[in-house]
Write a structure and sequence with these properties.
Layout: E1 2-7, H1 11-22, E2 27-33, H2 36-46, E3 50-53, H3 62-71, E4 77-82, H4 87-95, E5 100-103, H5 108-126, H6 133-140, H7 158-171, H8 176-183, H9 187-200, E6 203-208, E7 215-220
Parallel strand pairs: 1-2, 1-3, 3-4, 4-5
Antiparallel strand pairs: 6-7
Length: about 220
C-alpha cells in the first residue's frame, strides 16, 4: 500500500482528489494539506510515498515545495496536479524530479492511469536483479517505450484504437454512440476505447447537459 498526501488549497477539490486516490488499488490517502507550509510539515510527519501537489498555493508555489523537499533530501514521488500550462512550470516540475504532471480539470480514469504508471515504475525499481534495455527505456521514456496511445488494456486492439482516434479527430467531437457508428463497433466497445484514451490524455471530455444525465462527449487534445 502506497501512502499519498493530497495538496490543494481548494477544500472541495482536495476532497475529490482524496476520494479518487481511495478508489485506486494499492493507494491510500493519508493526509490533506492546503498550503506549502502544511505540505512540507505533513511530508516530514507522514512520510508518504507520493504527493499530489498543486502549483498554486497561498504561501508558496508547488514548485517551491518540490524544491524544498529535494533540498532536504526527500525523494518522495510527486505528481503535479494543476491548471498551470505554462512551459516554464512544466520545465520546473521536470527539473525538480516530478514523476508526472496532470492538468486540471480531469476525471478519475486520468488520475488512475497516472497512479498505476507510478506504481509500475516503483515496482520495477524495487525489483531485485539486473535490468535490460527495454525496462530502462520504459523508465526513462526512451524510443523503445510505447506511447500511451499504444499501451492498450487487454481486449482492446491497436488497429481499432487508431480507427477510434481517427474518427474522433475527423468528427471534431463524438459521443460513444456516434463513435460506434463511425467505426462500426458496439457502443460498449467504443466507450471502452474512448475512456482509455481519455485516461492517457489523448482525448479530453466535455459534459453536455440536457434532460437526464449529462452526455459524455470526447474530442482530441489540441
Amino acid at each position: 500500500m502506497r501512502d499519498v498526501l493530497v495538496v490543494d488549497d481548494d477544500f472541495m477539490v482536495a476532497e475529490i482528489h482524496r476520494r479518487f486516490v481511495e478508489q485506486v488499488d494499492g493507494f491510500r490517502a493519508v493526509g490533506v494539506a492546503r498550503t506549502g507550509t502544511e505540505a512540507l510539515s505533513a511530508a516530514r510527519e507522514l512520510r508518504p510515498q507520493l504527493i499530489l501537489l498543486d502549483v498554486y498555493l497561498p504561501d508558496m508555489t508547488g514548485l517551491e515545495v518540490l524544491q524544498r523537499l529535494r533540498s532536504e533530501g526527500d525523494r518522495v514521488g510527486v505528481i503535479m496536479i494543476t491548471a498551470a500550462r505554462e512551459l516554464d512550470t512544466v520545465k520546473g516540475a521536470l527539473d525538480g524530479g516530478a514523476a508526472d504532471y496532470l492538468i486540471k480539470p480531469f476525471e478519475f480514469p486520468q488520475l488512475k492511469a497516472k497512479l498505476d504508471a507510478f506504481a509500475a515504475r516503483a515496482d520495477a525499481l524495487e525489483s531485485a536483479g539486473g535490468v535490460d534495455q527495454s525496462l530502462i527505456d520504459s523508465l526513462f521514456g526512451g524510443p523503445a517505450a510505447a506511447s500511451p496511445q499504444e499501451m492498450l488494456p487487454k481486449g482492446l486492439g491497436a488497429e481499432t484504437g487508431r480507427l477510434v482516434l481517427d474518427a474522433v479527430r475527423d468528427a471534431g467531437e463524438v459521443s460513444a454512440a456516434e463513435c460506434a457508428d463511425l467505426v462500426g463497433i458496439s457502443r460498449v466497445s467504443a466507450r471502452r476505447y474512448l475512456e482509455h484514451y481519455l485516461s492517457t490524455g489523448a482525448l479530453e471530455l466535455r459534459l453536455q447537459y440536457g434532460v437526464g444525465r449529462p452526455e459524455r462527449r470526447y474530442r482530441s487534445v489540441r
